[in-house]
Amino acid sequence: MTFQELGLNEDILQALDYMNFTKATPIQEKAIPHILNNKDLIACAQTGTGKTGAFILPILQKIAALNSGKTSTLIIVPTRELATQIDTQIQGLSYFTGATSFCLYGGGKNGDLREHKQAFENGTDIVIATPGKLLSYLITKVFDPSSIKHLILDEADRMLDMGFSDDIARILGFLPQDRQSLMFSATMPPKIRDFARKLLKNPEEISLSISKPSESIKQQVYLTFEEQKVPLLISLIEAREHYNSILIFSSTIKKVDVIVRELNKKGYKSEGISSSYEQAERESKLLDFANKTIRIVVATDVLSRGIDVKDINLVVNFDVPGNPEDYVHRIGRTARAATKGEAITFVNPDDMQKFSQIETLIERSLEKENVPESLGLGNSPEWNAKSRKPSFKGKKKFYKKKS
Questions:
Q1: Cα 327 from chain centroid (whole Å)
Q2: pLDDT tens digits for 324-345?
Q3: Residue 392 exposure: Cα atoms within 13 Å on the Cβ side
Q4: Is residue 322 situated within a structural domain?
Q5: Over the stretch 214-262, which tens digit does the pLDDT of each residue have?
Q6: In 122-252, where does DSSP find H-type helix?
Q7: Listed residue (9, 3, 59) closest to 29, CA to CA
Q8: 247 and 190, same structural domain?
Q9: CB burial of residue 242 (10 Å; 0-12, 13-18, 19+)
Q10: Are 167 and 114 in contact (CB under 8 A)?
Q11: Element (H, E) at 190
Q12: Measured by CB atoms within 10 angstroms of the end CB, which terminus of the chain is less buried, N or C?
């Protein structure tokens, strides 16, 4: 279906044409009519399906019709990276409409209080904010939400996983009851449905099944013990000297720092990105990664969604993600735009059950490889998806650093 068939106005159609967008994605085709008809909506669609456009396009049209000169739309997101990405997309899509947006998040160089107050006083049409910073401005009355007509929660599942449920509940208490509320989530667990019932009024529901990983992604799995992971990672990178863009995901901030330190000691220049870094530093590293001046980035799941870096050759899951859907999001960073890519996952004994759930989700059993004997790291654990207890092939050998 074309955007013109969806009933979007000429200014928005002109912006879409300028950006070479002609046909709506499935989530856009289903969501835009409901939003234009002022319906509350809960929509399940994974990253990369065009869901940002699904709510931005109709909201821009509604803002143009409203022409209130006040902040009418509030978009709440879990991370600063996603906030800035949405802000960039709004700037492109609103070029011919004159709508304005402002990005608000904690930490980093996001302007000072005076600049924020000025933006609110000037009547910014759309505010994109992370929960913590937004709540602080509501409590201190820096931001007046009384003119809000549209509330959008993007990546709601991620916000609940990050512990923002209480903050969001308090934020809702500051907002007008007479509003349109939209919730977008990559997954739809019971906690999201419970949350939606508190937020939405007689919502329409859209649920697009999560896409399977692209066939262009070569997926590999190594059975490893924890102490084998770093030397195995280094050996895999050594064998891929022609790769100029490698993204490594780890489960904790502490591990990110360890992996970066070990890679740099071996001469592989790498940088870490996690919530422990200032926003300006994170943005600078991400820009350098996108421009290929940084070859290797090690990150927590802060980068599994909401980034668009082209031509990533390899994604490594140093740790198995906690949610099966996050595996799809992580490895989906490679093989984008009809290119080929590679995804490697390290699975230790405690993570075998979780990886089995991933295989159920993607409807595919992946071949499990052992740590190469040539590395001298000892035997690999034996695959056992039903038990969380370590299982060995013969006598376990522990990796010892060479002096």
A1: 12
A2: 888 988 898 887 655 789 999 9
A3: 8
A4: yes
A5: 888 999 999 999 999 999 999 999 999 999 999 999 989 899 999 999 9
A6: 131-139, 156-161, 165-174, 190-199, 229-238
A7: 3
A8: no
A9: exposed
A10: no
A11: helix 190-199
A12: C
